[in-house]
Predict the structure.
Amino acid sequence: MAPTAVLVAIPTYNERDNIQVLLNLFQEVGRDFHILFVDDNSPDGTAALIESLQPAWPNLFLLKRPGKLGIGSAHRDAISYAYDHGYSLFATMDADLTHNPHSLARMLEYAQYADIVIGSRYLLSRSLPGWNLFRRCLTHAGHFVTGFFLKMPYDATGGLRVYNLKSIPQELFRLVRSNGYSFLYESLFILWTNGCQVVEVPIELPARTYGSSKMSVEQMLISIFRLVLLYTNIRVAPDLYRLKRFPRPKGKDIIPSVWDRYWGGGAREGAADVLFEVLATWFRMAFNKPFLERVMRKFFRKDERVLHAGCGSGQVDQTLRHLVKITACDISTDAVRMYAQVNWPHCQCIQGDIMDLPYPDGEFDGVYNLGVMEHFTHDEIRCAFKEFYRVLRPGGRVVIFWPPLRSPVRFVLGLFNFWARRLDAKAAQPPYPPEISRVVSRRQGEDWLREAGFRPLYCEFSGRDLFTQYAFVAEKPLDGAAQQGVRVGNV
């Protein structure tokens, strides 16, 4: 590879008719371009055509993927390719001939002054020649809402960009969760938030004359929901989007888990998945977090050591971490990464199974979790409770927030799951794993805790969180002489 080469990534899906025309335009420019097509198994044979052209084009590369995984996912794979192969300058563009390689060449002149150069559709009065009124209004509406929610003045949804990879840490791109069109504005927001310098260059974007738009109604909904989720997380957990040099969380070897799809999003994301994440984040912060904090303050003193077993993203711990010293554990590697992103260096987090906790006996003053036990069978719950008992010191407390069998919120979640399956028949499962062990009554929950050797202390089920959770508190009994002088608690 020549040191001055620019890698241009072009995602493709059914773009066979445009490939040769696009390559001829690149040849006219005369720059040292290396072209990487990222093809999502196009039915029209786009990949086969590119392979047939490679002998005549030594700087033409192809990254074949098994199916239609999303344009954001294609950009993510291309970015990894660029870093892995040592490119300093990396560009992205569309294959539908609306993006012109001549515009890209002009943008490269500014790459020495900025980290990201964007081809903007909004700097010229006639930047969208030939566009009909509906498409023009739709595009300007997208520009307005991204600017309103994210406070960025740039063309955040345009795909014609140049990145100076010498000055952009690859870890920044790993903070992006979107796999669809929303990757464009989410990635730009994260780079901008972390201090990357952005320059815009005016371009003209002619109306599409070849092919058709790949953005479906569902993709449009996903982009809107992703924008709302991004705005929500900016308000409740801004550290999710800031680069932190925390130590890589350690633990067991990677364990595949159904929770990876929930926390990580997976290669396929649907409108129901993203909408559920938005609603869950709002509810978690508005109702679950205050209820958790109140119960934990009631039973734990400042700086006591507690384990959050099944920690999730850790947003609920952002205030609690200043009261107690939290160590967190989760089986999902994506949840562990998010937890560390939000709470490091205040909390430590490792990847592990709550039914085989990687901690010594008597390590903690308390163990707690929120919305975890209902996803396990009775035998699995019994196993987890015994592990909680083992890692607690005598007199330590366990706090379990456990959804009831019936409640208004549970009914709404059931309807949401039903709607999600009807909306997306291809979904392998609902947006979150099934709740197979919701607690029937206070007596049942306390009996299960007694089975593991705990002594129940407290139970609350109220409208503070709209009757979403039972809050059970139980104690590991004191042994012998250790009972003297130990605080009983504020029950």
Q: What stands out?
A: Residues 421 and 428 are 9 Å apart (CA to CA).
